[in-house]
Every structure is written in C-alpha cells, then in structure tokens.
Amino acid sequence: MSTVVASRTTRPASPGLRTAFVAPVAGTAAAVGVWWLITTVLAGPESLLRAFAPQSAIPAVGALATDGVLVTDIATSLWRLVLGLLVAGVLGVVTGLAVGSSALLEQGTRPVFQFLRMISPLAWAPVAIGVFGIGHRPVVFLVAAAAIWPIVLNVVAGVRAVDPKLTLVARSLGATRRETLTTIVLPTVRPHLLTGIRLALGIGWVVLVPAEMLGVTSGLGYEILNSRDQLAYDKVMAVILVIGALGYGLDSAARRLLAP
Amino acid sequence: MGTVALAVNGGVRRYGSHTVLDGVDLEIERGVRQVVLGPTGSGKSTLLRLLAGLETLDDGTVARPDDLVTSTVFQEPLLLPWLTVRENVRLGGRYRANRDRFTDTHADALLDRVGMAGHADAPPAALSGGQAQRVAIARGMAVRPDVLLLDEPFGALDPATRAGLQTWLRGLAEADGLTLVLVTHDVDEALYLGTHVAALDGEGGIGGRWIPEPSEAPGGHPLRDEVLAGYRSQVVGAR
What we know:
The complex is a heterodimer.
Chain A: H1 2-13, H2 17-42, H3 54-67, H4 69-101, H5 103-117, H6 125-132, H7 136-160, H8 164-172, H9 177-211, H10 220-229, H11 233-257
Helix pairs in contact in A: 3-11, 4-5, 4-7, 4-9, 6-7, 7-9, 8-9, 9-11, 10-11
Chain B: E1 4-15, E2 18-29, E3 33-37, H1 44-52, E4 59-63, E5 70-73, H2 85-89, H3 104-113, H4 129-142, E6 147-151, H5 159-176, E7 180-184, H6 187-193, E8 196-200, E9 206-210, H7 224-238
Parallel strand pairs in B: 3-7, 3-8, 5-6, 6-7
Antiparallel strand pairs in B: 1-2, 1-4, 8-9
C-alpha cells in the first residue's frame, strides 16, 4: 500500500517540477496582465472598466475585509452551500439507491429526471421565494435543486456497477437484504458518490451566487449587487475575485478529500 | 452412516422451457464429501445453489433444516476488492445470522491454516488465482458451516495449482471432518476428493453413484474408466 502511494506522489513531481510550478504561475501572471491591459491601457479615461482594474480591485478586497463585511458574507454563503449540499446529498443518495435498484423506477423516472435536469435551477427562483419567503431557505433550495442531479446520476451508476456475483457471495454467507446493502452495495457506490459530491459542489457554488441576488440581504451574491448599488465597482470586482478564489479552494479541497 | 444434513427429493428446476433438473434425488450425510459430477450445462451448479438455499425448486423438495448453516465457494474467488484479505475472511462475521458462531480469532486462525496469514493485510488484487481461492475457502469456512458447498472451485486455475489445491483441500476436510458438497466436471478430481460421487446423466437426473476407495493422489483411480465411460455416453446423450 505504502509503495503505491509513494510512487504516485514522487513520479509526476520529479521530471516536471519546474513546469509544474512555473507554468501555472506564468499563466496566472499572463491572465492578470490581460486583465490590466483591458481595464487600464485599452479602456478610455472615462470608461467604467477602469474601476475593475487589478490595482483597484485587489486593495478593495482588503477594504471589504477590514469592514468585516467579507467574513460575514463568506460565512453566510458557505453555510448556505453546505446546507444545500446536505439536502441534495440525503435526497440524492436515497433517490439514487432506489432508482438504481429497480428497473421499473429507472424507466419511470428517466423522462422526468431528464426534463428537470435541463431546467436551470434559477428558473425556480420565483417559485422558491414564493414558497419559502425571504432568507436562507430559497437559496438553500436552489443550491440543492442544482446539486441533486450529479449525486442522483452517480449513485444510480454506482448501484448499476454492483457485481451480482458479490451479492450472491453475501447471501451465501447468510446476509439479509439490508446487510447486503451495507457490505456490498454501499462500498461499490462510495467512489461514484464521491465523484457526484465533487460535481455537486462545483455546480452548487456556481448557482449559489446568482441565487443570492434574489430575495436575500447577505452573502457574496448579495454583496455584488450591494456594491453595484453604491457604484463601488472596485468592490464588485473584489467580491468576484473572492468568489473565484473560494471556489478554486473548495474544488481543490474536494479533489483531495473526495478522491475515489 | 451419519445423519442426513441436506437432501433433495424429486427436485425439478426449469429455466423457461428448458428443464435443467428433472427428478433429482440426493442425500448428503454429515461428514461425507459428496461430489456431483457432470458436464457443463448439466445442472450441477443449479443443484448446488438449491442446496445453498440461493434458488428454489419448481417441483420436489429440499430438506434443509432451518438451523443448518451452509456457505458457498464459487468458481471465481469473488473477494471484495475494497477489503483486505483478512477483512474478506471476516466478512461473514458482519452478518447477524453468524453472530453466535463467528469469532475473528477463528477467522484469523483459518487464514493461517490456508497458508495466507502472511498476506492478511494485502488487497485481493495482489494475490494469484490459487491464493485468492484459498482465501475464498477460508471465508466460507469462517462462518463454521455445517455443509461447505463448492462450485467448481478449482475450475479456473492452471493444472499444477489445481492439483496442489485438491490435495490441500482433502487434507483440510479429513482433518476437520468437514461435510462438503463439491460440483465438478473433472472425473479425476471427483474420485480423488469425494467419499461419495454422483454423476448427473445430462437429462436432469442422476446417472450413477459411486463410493470410491480413497486414492493417494489425483488421477489414475481404479473407477476412472467406469465413471468416464458413463460420462462420455451422457455427454453424447445430452445432445
């Protein structure tokens, strides 16, 4: 076991250490250069774009942080994300296990799922606000509505991947249906579920920000609109930077923690 | 003559319009090693699954006491790839049905008896076919079955490994007084491993029954030609 892990970490690092480190830094620098070029050099002196320049936006992150707004908004947004993913996870796993183990359910739900999956969760925003009112709940609903599909579909695929011969082994050793579920089905589903959660996290984060532009007065999405209303475009850009950085961090963490 | 542990009386099993077993009678006494011999497609695996309680008859009866414990070893080892070798042998202990009989110490001791204690923490993927099958046999024995059922357990192995495991299994069964039911298409394996041999006749019934004298090594048993002659005519008859 240890040799496998060791070879996995050392092998890619040794030949491409320089490119693995230099290329991303160079790419990031180039992107910031283009950003600066567009907002500072190419933009006219009266242009709105000037406010979005890196030299304005990056200090604005600090300003937001010292205000104390940023930490509250991040905490609020992450809390909604976690709640939405939790709802999606519970409903998705239960639905996926049921649909995956019954051909009848699978055929019956296929058209409905395909239909629902192709509706942007944000289309439900008026419904969510109408039903849940203003506050956390409509946002959590919208995140869950987006995040549930990758979980359901991956759990269904996981149940499909269960080897019926292994199920027979469990039964031949006296396992009940429930014991077969816990010792054969769930371990087979686990890596598929982890992939599903990782995808759900990505899509949930993407949906969270626009969901927070509707019917709430806190969170990162709200902060973008709030800054715009104050005509503080540097802060708008600052919040966008924070959203990107947090999403990047969440996805990297998920990749590491949820590796199948 | 011991007591009967398991019996099939007038067993009939059909798959659609195809009748696989048609009036099979078989009694397995405690302490015997019953071999069921038959060519591919003769219904011997079906018979084993019936004895295991994994399938039900269309007609006839299986006499299987409620408290009788069986476990099955299949042609492939079918070890759970996400568990270690030791955890695979302990699998039966996670099922309520075995709670009174199962101990981890016994499972670990079995792992030692099948010569696999040195691989206890290895993943199943690291084992050879013969090693994996020995672990599968230990897993089946770990629930202390009254009858251990084996479905062509050496069928997927190379000849040298197969001969070695036949000798090993007979030694193990003799030492522990195990009750075995083993199905195979290999006449030499049947005569070497079985205290009782029954040959399926290719038409869903049993064609011949023998109680072979124990032989020193697999192959060359005095009954070989007799059993083989019947076996050939059955294979032809089945067509």
